[in-house]
């Protein structure tokens, strides 16, 4: 896709190209509006600005369906489908009772901490926060509901602890890219860049999830989880069939995770694993083909809006990129740098340009940031250890400061529609992380 002859924007790049994204963020905060509506309006405005017609629109929809965002949306539906199958087979309730009773989880804070620990560990193993959330949510849902955790708090916990887990994942694409660009080993990368960042992110996750949970409970019309009577009874003992099915699920799940780690499998493998786990559960629970399919379809149906949102958001990002909106913003930041920038200035500019001016996958963002500032790095002798945290912050902050799959998919998986409170938490967390990065950029170059 490229600029059309009849579009309002004539030159690339243009800050005007950011209008659709800004409009989307504004409209998405309107109460009572379906989340698809702001996307459609923003996309239409974007197509008018760039001058593209219906044929190009249809082609881009096809591209979006096969994009990473499209895959994430599909993954969200699969996770919800597995969740219903686990519920019907009694696996969710069995696992939850085991966790809650053995660990003594009785309060909202304990439940949120449990969720974050599970999400962090699993995201580290599979290298994807969204994939981890899709697996964790069906298992922990009864515990979250029984302790009174709000869906928006679960969303915030999923997003931030998942991102922290990804930073620890040795096979995650962004980490591999960062180590390749800087020449750092995995321990060095953790020490200088990923480690400090993920610690701040985990602390922020705990604080904000507790805060937003308390805030959301004050809304009399706020979201809450609903459970069946069987799920609510935490003292009821599981049947022999439920125990066997749960064991089969845990063993299969563990083997799949081990395989994913050993052979460095990514999202494509998780897309296979979720329905495969559903089949295993259906077989051991003797649920029956028709009932298992109906349960899986029911879960998918409940989250089809997330799939549509992911596909449409890819269209929105494509429109902004065609107009050069993000690149124009990046150029604006770079233009503020003097002829002889200090190490701290280069680090700060790299962080802010990456966070606000470069959009896309984290690995791709790292490469763009690195190439953009490489002459300045070489000019003042900035060490790759210090530069590594710029690559991390400049790419990961983007994933939470703009509405995208990183935040929209967990919101759907956590069954929340509270976009406003979720984004407020993301912006607060971004401000905290950026403040930390500013201090890091000023203090560390003076020491090393």
From TrEMBL:
It comes from the Bacteria. It is found in: Cell membrane. It holds the Pfam family DcuC. It is a multi-pass membrane protein. Keywords: Cell membrane, Membrane, Transmembrane, Transmembrane helix. The chain crosses the membrane at residues 12-29, 36-57, 111-136, 143-169, 189-212, 244-261, 267-285, 306-326, 346-369, 381-401, 421-443. This is Citrate transporter.
């Amino acid at each position: 896709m490229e600029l059309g002859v009849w579009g309002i924007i004539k030159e690339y790049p243009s800050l005007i190209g950011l209008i659709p994204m800004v409009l989307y963020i504004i409209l998405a905060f309107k109460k009572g509006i379906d989340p698809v509506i702001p996307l459609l309006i923003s996309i239409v405005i974007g197509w008018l600005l760039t001058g593209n017609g219906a044929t190009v629109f249809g082609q881009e929809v096809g591209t979006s369906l096969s994009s990473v965002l499209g895959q994430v949306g599909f993954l969200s539906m699969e996770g919800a489908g597995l969740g219903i199958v686990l519920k019907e087979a009694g696996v969710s309730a069995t696992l939850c009772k085991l966790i809650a009773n053995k660990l003594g989880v009785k309060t909202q804070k304990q439940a949120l901490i449990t969720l974050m620990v599970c999400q962090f560990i699993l995201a580290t193993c599979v290298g994807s926060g969204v994939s981890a959330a899709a697996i964790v949510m069906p298992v922990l849902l009864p515990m979250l509901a029984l302790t009174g955790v709000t869906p928006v708090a679960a969303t915030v916990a999923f997003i931030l602890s998942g991102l922290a887990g990804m930073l620890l994942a040795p096979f995650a694409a962004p980490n591999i890219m960062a180590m390749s660009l800087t020449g750092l080993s995995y321990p060095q990368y953790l020490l200088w860049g990923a480690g400090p960042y993920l610690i701040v992110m985990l602390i922020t996750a705990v604080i904000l999830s507790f805060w937003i949970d308390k805030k959301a409970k004050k809304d009399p019309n706020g979201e809450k989880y609903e459970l069946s009577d069987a799920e609510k009874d935490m003292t009821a003992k599981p049947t022999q069939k439920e125990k066997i099915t749960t064991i089969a699920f845990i063993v299969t799940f563990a083997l799949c995770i081990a395989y994913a780690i050993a052979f460095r499998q990514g999202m494509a493998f998780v897309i296979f694993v979720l329905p495969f786990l559903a089949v295993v559960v259906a077989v051991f629970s003797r649920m029956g083909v028709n009932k298992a399919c109906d349960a899986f379809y029911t879960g998918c149906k409940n989250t089809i809006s997330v799939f549509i949102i992911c596909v449409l958001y890819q269209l929105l990002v494509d429109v902004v990129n065609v107009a050069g909106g993000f690149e124009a913003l990046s150029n604006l930041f770079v233009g503020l740098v003097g002829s002889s920038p200090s190490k701290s200035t280069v680090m700060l500019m790299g962080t802010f340009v990456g966070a606000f001016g470069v959009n896309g996958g984290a690995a791709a963002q790292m490469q763009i940031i690195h190439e953009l500032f490489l002459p300045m790095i070489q000019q003042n002798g900035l060490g790759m250890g210090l530069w590594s945290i710029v690559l991390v912050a400049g790419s990961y902050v983007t994933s939470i400061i703009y509405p995208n799959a990183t935040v929209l998919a967990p919101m759907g998986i956590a069954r929340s529609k509270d976009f406003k409170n979720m984004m407020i938490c993301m912006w607060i967390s971004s401000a905290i992380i950026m403040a930390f990065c500013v201090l890091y950029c000023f203090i560390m170059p003076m020491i090393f």
